[in-house]
Design a protein that fits this description.
about 600 residues; 8-stranded mixed sheet; 5-stranded mixed beta barrel; about 30% helix; 17 helices
């Protein structure tokens, strides 16, 4: 018999009754039932119930065992009585009567319990992550993550893509976040950067004649952490294709993303044909460029019903042509208590309040706004929003560019509060026609709004003859349930157009050559039209596992202060290491 096990703890079935077996694992739970000791023995594969009575030679040894001790047991498989079978686990029809125990690894007092689903402080969970990872839900999430990556990889290869690995040590470049810098010992005073994304390398692969590239790429960004983005590093499905239009990219990527969700949806509906929603439409209807389409609420511009009305606050605002009034429908929200609650929520978000109209029995409008604009306008708003008695509408007013984010939050809040969001489905969509540029109010200049390497719609002609703030780009995102899960574009592969695009954002040709020299040179020697995108593996897994924090699907994440509490990183280094790197620390004591 094998030194440690003849079977795993998830393997035994009723067909094994009568066999003598050897199992090794962790003591998941130990129970004393009337003098008989039961231990649920756990390994990676499952749990087997084992027991010893006072007559067993292993009884005294089992009495000494505690939770999470690692033991080896020998014993005989017996069938459970019908009333004692456990249908919740695959091994629930059998149990093992222990004849011998060997303690392989005793455990100290546990800082967190593996059995059960107790909540522990994040600091404890991350410091003792090896214990946290033994817990059933997190262990299952990590296994799901691996299966999702396998599904992605298989689907990409089936789609004709080839897997490559691009460099980890590279040059610093502005990708929208801070770089992690790595000092060079051989070249004192110079630094490598960890890649924020393989953007330039994958485009260079297309310059090199490779047609369909992908990799599950590690990416590094020195940015503040949040629930849907881990500090330090993350993984993405990175891909690029040559001789393609935007539609070609969509046709290649959509089946992969849809198929991965279907593989793990467990019966939940998954969008079949992703709708294509222009960026401007998404912002106007949903107040977000990553709308949660499980929420049925669609906002509308109702400015015409307030112009010249008795509600002077809105009427005066609308005298300025850039201002508008948007309505957020609230089916079933026509109670004073709900409207007051939404008003209080708006104030907690830093707003002066949230105007509303309620429609009561007979369809009559109620509330301060209804009283001021009169029944005819109130009825017109109700009809425009397809509302009825018992419903309500909330209003935001001013410059849409300033209130759009809040309006999106309000739409989400109304949908959640009224239980209108169908949580048991995956709603996916393409967001298209992103603006190429945006106005940077702080620096009083035009900036790239998304990806600087994207092709503007209209090409060089648009860059030379169009107001930059009106130019749309061949840029696109995939959204799912309120999260952006993928982003990409058709690339600007013409050197002259690339230089002009950067000039508009305030970068001269010298800067382009200095910072993107490899790609710029490659474009001089026959650059194919190409495009691609990157999908966030971490966010996809997070959605599939039904969690809202990436720490629940990552092996060894950092905390909110970008610290690895398990390994003690970041850490100080020795003076000798600094000397070898020609580095002297200049730490501000006030920092």
């Amino acid at each position: 018999m094998h030194r440690y096990r003849s079977h795993t703890c998830g393997q035994l079935r009723s067909t094994d009754v009568g066999e003598t077996v050897r199992l090794s694992g962790w003591c998941h739970r130990i129970r004393d039932h009337g003098g008989i000791l039961f231990v649920d023995l756990r390994d990676h594969y499952g749990i087997t119930q084992c027991l010893a009575d006072p007559d067993s030679p292993a009884f005294k040894a089992l009495e000494q065992c505690r939770a999470e001790w690692v033991i080896r047991i020998d014993g005989k498989v017996k069938g459970r009585d019908e009333s004692l079978k456990n249908a919740k686990i695959p091994t629930g029809e059998v149990e093992v009567f222990i004849t011998e125990i060997e303690v392989l690894g005793p455990a100290a007092e546990l800082p967190l319990q593996v059995f059960g689903d107790q909540d522990y402080p994040e600091e404890t969970r991350l410091k003792y992550r090896f214990l946290d990872l033994r817990r059933e839900k997190l262990h299952k999430n990590i296994m799901t993550r691996g299966q999702v990556v396998d599904s992605i990889r298989r689907r990409m290869k089936d789609g004709g893509f080839f897997e490559f690995q691009t460099p980890i040590l590279t040059a610093s470049s502005p990708e929208g976040a801070r770089d992690f810098l790595v000092p060079s010992r051989i070249h004192p005073g110079k630094f490598y950067a960890l890649p924020q994304a393989p953007q330039q390398y994958k485009q260079l692969l297309m310059m090199s004649g490779f047609d369909r590239y992908f990799q599950i790429a590690p990416c590094f960004r020195d940015e503040d952490p949040r629930a849907d983005r881990l500090p330090g590093e993350f993984y993405q499905l990175d891909l690029e294709m040559s001789f393609v239009t935007q539609d070609d990219v969509f046709a290649a990527v959509e089946p992969v993303i849809r198929g991965v969700f279907e593989d793990f949806a467990e019966g939940k509906p998954v969008t079949q044909a992703f709708p294509r929603i222009p960026y401007a439409e998404s912002m106007r209807k949903y107040g977000s460029d990553k709308p949660d389409l499980r929420n049925p609420l669609v906002m509308q511009d109702v400015s015409e019903h307030f112009r010249g009305s008795g509600f002077k606050v809105f009427a005066r605002m609308l005298e300025d042509a850039k201002n508008e009034v948007w309505a957020i429908p609230a089916p079933g929200g026509g109670s004073r208590a709900f409207c007051d609650r939404m008003n209080s929520w708006a104030q907690s978000e830093g707003q002066p309040g949230l105007g509303y109209v309620m429609w009561r029995e007979g369809g009559e409008g109620a509330g301060p706004i209804a009283n001021n604009i009169g029944p005819e306008r109130t009825a017109a708003i109700r009809d425009a929003l397809a509302l009825k008695e018992g419903d309500a509408a909330f209003f935001v007013a001013g410059d849409p560019a300033k209130f759009v984010k809040f309006s999106g939050l309000a739409r989400t809040k109304v949908g959640e509060e009224l239980n209108l969001v169908d949580k048991d489905r995956f709603e996916l969509a393409w967001i298209v026609d992103f603006p190429m540029y945006e106005w940077n109010e702080e620096e009083k200049k035009v900036d790239f709004s998304h990806n600087p390497f994207s092709m503007p719609q209209g090409g060089l002609d648009a860059l030379e003859g169009q107001d930059p703030l009106t130019i749309k780009a061949f840029q696109y995102d995939i959204t799912c349930n309120g999260y952006e899960i993928a982003s990409g574009g058709i690339r600007n592969h013409r050197p002259k157009a690339m230089v002009k695009a950067f000039e508009i954002a305030g970068y001269g040709e010298e800067t382009v050559i200095e910072r993107f020299g490899g790609m710029y040179r490659a474009f001089q020697y026959g650059a194919p039209p190409h495009g691609g995108m990157a999908a966030g593996v971490d966010r996809i897994v997070m959605l599939i596992c039904g969690v809202t924090n990436l720490r629940e699907i990552s092996l060894f994440p950092m905390n909110q202060r970008a610290e690895d509490l398990l390994m003690g990183a970041p850490s100080e280094v020795t003076p000798r290491q600094l000397r070898e790197l020609s580095i002297r620390l200049a730490i501000d004591p006030k920092a």
